[in-house]
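Researcher: Here's my situation. A collaborator sent me these components and asked whether they could plausibly form a single complex. I don't have experimental data yet, so a predicted model of the whole assembly would be a useful starting point for our discussion.
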Amino acid sequence: MIIQALRRVGSKGVSFLDTFGASGMFLFQSLIAMPNLRNSFPLLVKQIYSVGVLSLIIIMVSGLFIGMVLALQGYNILARYGSEQALGQLVSLTLLRELGPVVAALLFAGRAGSALTAEIGLMKSTEQLASLEMIGVDPLRRVIAPRFWAGVICMPILAILFSTVGIWGASLVGVDWLGVYSGSFWANMQDSVQFTDDVLNGIIKSVAFGFVVTWIAVFQGYDAVPTSEGIGRATTRTVVYASLAILGLDFILTAVMFGDL
Amino acid sequence: MSDSNSNFIEVRDLTFYRGERVIYQNVNLDIPRGKITAIMGPSGTGKTTLLRLIGGQLKPDSGTITVDGENIPDLPRKELFELRSRMGMLFQSGALFTDISVFDNVAFPLRVHSNLPKDMIRDVVLMKLHAVGLRGARDLMPSELSGGMARRVALARAIALDPDLVMYDEPFAGQDPVAMGVVVQLIRLLNDALGHTSIIVSHDVEETASIADYIYVVADGEVIGQGAPDEVLNSEQPRLRQFMKGLPDGPVPFHFPARDLTDDLLAGVDK
């Protein structure tokens, strides 16, 4: 019994490391030697549109609601201690340090990551990747690399927009509706938010999340079993793995950035 | 390799397994330069696999595959991709790029591998599409095409660069009688006019025999017969005769390997 359980854990571990190594090699091969700019730039722009621009609506709307909810909840608690003018500080720090990068990345994984996996998986099952190879074009550079870079570029921009819209939503609720004095709302925010500590760290987080989410998404698509069931599973795996990776990585990054280690 | 009599492709002692299953066991094949060679055989004998081995998308377990003097399994990635730009392949499913139009699909290899000006690319693409009867369909997206039309667009794409070697995987499947006749003629015509080497994988005996110069019949992981179409068609060898004439009974199995039917039925539900 115990031996068998150990064996199962061992083989799971080995196969995990195997996949991890394969995905590392895959990423490395996609990214070495970016081909000439004239050909790859239009491909990158197209991917930035489909990965980034098309994610704008869900990111902005979610940001707005998160900001509004934060302001409502925060106001109720702060008002108990008579310090509702600290609302701006509360909302902006929460969004810039944590919720902006994390929630935007989770939404990004669901919206863009799953789409990337499904698209690449379907290209594989319809032999489009194989026919690219036979035409003499490396699908890793032609299909994978532009999608990967688009994800890494778009993620921090989306996270910044998320936080910005969130803060605006908080001011709508806090200042315009609940009547917090706007001077203290913004002045408190300005006093407490540091560019390097808060804004920059948030951006660093979202770059890391963008890297991990897109990596998982493109690899799962490329590695998918080329059947309808296989692509369905790969898409699910992208969302699950990416979400777990975001939350785990967020803890590590937070510990390094704000934990005084 | 300027010798026009030499073989364009030489396959020696090729062995290939898919999992535990033997696909090829010590197979030898020659594909002569400038000719149409047909590879025929029952479904599931690995005819498509052979094309993928020649294209370097699969690696054999042992043996050599020499294309124009270069051993494919040993070629580094970069050289392999260069060699592939001289090959055209028509995939069974067509495998058109679904995010771009018919015109852009055919133009794709030209844009990647040549520095031709735009208007010249346009002329070449329209000529290739005209040859397969789909010049008027150039603005359609692949999802708007029928299966047979998609395969003809893929054919136009495969020959866009006038490659030295064209591999056709089931070019006749899904074509109506008119299109079938045109495609058959087109393959012959292209081969003679451009002097490239063609490989056709098919199990349409009649059409294939009418244009091929040489036929290999593969089954059970080996070459069971070869020769000019007449020789193969009129062969008295039992396995060959059965396949070429399409007879239901004979040594070529119709059934996928399984145990005896009676045993199977009497065995009841598997535990």
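Model: Some features of this prediction you could bring to your collaborator: The longest helix of chain A spans residues 87-125. Chain A has a mean pLDDT of 90.
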